[in-house]
Design brief:
Blueprint (H helix, E strand, L loop, with lengths): L1 E3 L16 H12 L2 E3 L1 E2 L19 E6 L7 E4 L12 E2 L21 H12 L2
Parallel strand pairs: 3-5
Antiparallel strand pairs: 1-4, 2-4, 5-6
């Protein structure tokens, strides 16, 4: 579960000095789904204020399955935010061979199967 929760709290923003009752509710809801607050690899804001009177903050959060050793942290990508005032968050999930059963199917070039396949997909255009 990821998103802009618009809750400033010192639980996830080390530069903010207050605790919000809204964050308690959010953490209770996440816990009811078996999710824990993900920690960011970097200690940087996820939202940069457009107004000089406002401060940058951490509003975008990620919640991941509890006790998941494979991926329990997220990254913040400030370099690709473009025109948004929010930073993208990503979680890298590695897939190991023993977890991904795949099969490969192909159609032989210039075969009757290829001709039928091409005819099927072009007839719907």
């Amino acid at each position: 579960m990821m998103g802009d929760f618009n809750i400033r709290d010192n639980d996830w923003d080390p530069f903010f000095s207050h605790h919000s009752l809204h964050s308690d509710n959010l953490l209770t809801i996440a816990d009811s789904f078996g999710l824990d607050l993900s920690s960011s690899i970097q200690c940087i804001p996820t939202r940069y204020a457009n107004n000089r009177n406002d401060s940058n903050s951490v509003l975008d959060l990620a919640f991941l399955l509890s006790n998941n050793i494979g991926f329990n942290q997220h990254k913040i990508l400030p370099d690709i935010r473009k025109l948004s005032d929010h930073m993208p968050l990503i979680i890298e999930v590695s897939i190991q061979e023993d977890n991904a059963a795949t099969t490969k199917q192909s159609i032989k070039k210039d075969s009757d199967q290829e001709k039928d396949f091409i005819e099927d997909i072009t007839s719907n255009i």
